[in-house]
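Form P-L/3: holo structure prediction, ligand flavin-adenine dinucleotide.
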Amino acid sequence: MSAVASTRTQVAIIGGGPAGLMLSHLLHVAGIESVVVDNRTVEAIETTHRAGILERDSVRLLVDSGVSGRVLTDGHEHEGIDLRFGGVSHRIDFQKLAGASCWLYPQTDVFIDLHRARTRDGGDLRYGVTDTEVADVVDGPVVRITAADGSRQQITADLVVGADGSRSICRDLVAQPHRYFREYPFAWFGVMVQAPPSAPELIYNRSPQGFALISQRTETVQRMYFQCDPTEDPAAWSDDRIWDQLQTRLSGPDGFRLTEGPVIERTVLPFRSFVQSPMRHGRLLLAGDAAHTVPPTGAKGLNLALADVRVLADVIERALRTNDTDALDTYTERALSRVWKAQHFSYWMTTMLHNGSGATEFDEKRQLGELATLVASEAGSAYLAEGYTGWSQH
Ligand SMILES: Cc1cc2nc3c(=O)[nH]c(=O)nc-3n(C[C@H](O)[C@H](O)[C@H](O)COP(=O)(O)OP(=O)(O)OC[C@H]3O[C@@H](n4cnc5c(N)ncnc54)[C@H](O)[C@@H]3O)c2cc1C
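OUTPUT (holo model):
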């Protein structure tokens, strides 16, 4: 039987997505060693389309921490969004209302930048692993994996971070957690289409047929979504049927039409609000989707993952410098104060723009009343602008 290769590090990180890699980078900047393990391959992560909007502070974090300035050259600054209902568009001007912008910069590019930065700085990154096991999280964490080359490896660490996404194995290691859920009776049908942009900024659209979101990626590829049943089979939808659904939802007296092209990818995204508290147990800490998920309306998931690890890097640095794990005690409270704001924002955007199953005429008219109030009120519009571009870090 071959010997198990053993590594000693300060922080073992399970999950090399945005949360895990950004944490590893911030720890490196602070002079702290880490090992990142991930059960997907780099190629699989680089080609999986997910989020696309970065808040102002997420952009600052990428640039100021030395990951990359590419977001500022290849990303697109968006100074607002269109809220469209009753077939009429209303611009929410973020710069005027909140003095901030957000950036269209796909999660695949965020990952590429982070992975390049960690590789450039000599980071220990182990992708394509299997059989991840995490043990002894209270006394002295041990992580065991089967590496991509088939060898069995062990990592011992002062701390272990579960940044292993929405199907986290690490969150089950927290003793007696509180788990807060909200299920929704719908999902998003997401498509990538080969076509020029139909609009310069995102359009959040409410219609009697349901919600639709028009987003962008490049000059030739666009991202669009429409509300659907969670059991919808993406393979059952032809290109024509998808375009018909999108055009119907966006149509209005202004004659707006989306520019059509071949649908090159189609997926159904489940919807769920979830928070687990506490986000720490002994020497285990959770970050990103492992601890909380939000519905994608409002574009908070990726931004929350980055915000978590900014706080986490700070408390880990203090705990390791003073050799006192009490410094970790503040993490849950600091992280969750932002998480619950984002939970509310995502829930609010979702319920304001989607048709609930069994919605009555009263519900529909009340929803339109809410949207009309929002766009007519500078205070209402500013509330949306502040939430969308992100609350200041503290
Ligand atoms: C299909 C999909 C579409 C999305 N679309 C949007 C969107 O349009 N807009 C938006 O704002 N947000 C979207 N999100 C949410 C956003 O992508 C996440 O909030 C963000 O990726 C969170 O980053 P993370 O690092 O916490 O988790 P992840 O990016 O999920 O990274 C976790 C990593 O952990 C690894 N891992 C998991 N289990 C193990 C294990 N046992 N051992 C080792 N490694 C493990 C995974 O391979 C993964 O790479 C989407 C999410 C999904 C799943």
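COMMENT: The pocket of flavin-adenine dinucleotide is lined by residues 14-20, 37-40, 45, 50-51, 107, 129, 132, 163-165, 169, 269, 288-289, 296, 299, 301-302, 305 (CB under 6 Å).
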